[in-house]
Amino acid sequence: MNFNLGNKQIESNNLKVIQDQLNYECMMNKKFRQYADYCTDPSLKSLCNEAADVHKRNFNSLKSYLDSHQ
Fold first, then answer.
1. CA 59/CA 37 separation, integer angstroms
2. Which of 4, 15, 27, 28 is found 20 to 30 A from 52 (Cα to Cα)?
3. How many structural domains compose the chain?
4. Can you tell which superkingdom this protein's organism belongs to (predicted)?
């Protein structure tokens, strides 16, 4: 099955992979933010926040890709 999104298509199996990855990136962003809250060492806190930022950027990139296919 294909999802017809304008002139662009995403096959259902590819859409499922993207949705799974979006969920993963969202979860990892939340976890690293939570870890940062637990950290008392400033360098560890910073590292966790940087990791959270990476996952947020990944999420936003995937979301932009999906939005471009609507």
1. 21
2. 15
3. 1
4. Bacteria
Domain that holds residue 41: 2-67
Please tell me whether the overall predicted TM-score, pTM, comes out greater than 0.85 for this model: no
Residues near 15 by beta carbon (within 8 Å), at least 6 away in sequence: 3
Residue 43: both structure tokens together: 């360098």
Could you give the 3-state DSSP secondary structure of residue 26? helix
Number of Cβ within 10 Å of residue 38's Cβ equals 9
CA-to-CA separations, 26 to 10, 11, 21, 67, in angstroms, rounded: 21, 23, 8, 17
Q: 51 vs 19, 32, 35, 58, CA distance in Å?
A: 20, 6, 10, 11
Angle made by CA atoms 56, 65, 28, in degrees to the nearest 5: 25
User: What would the two tokens of residue 50 be?
Assistant: 């940087």
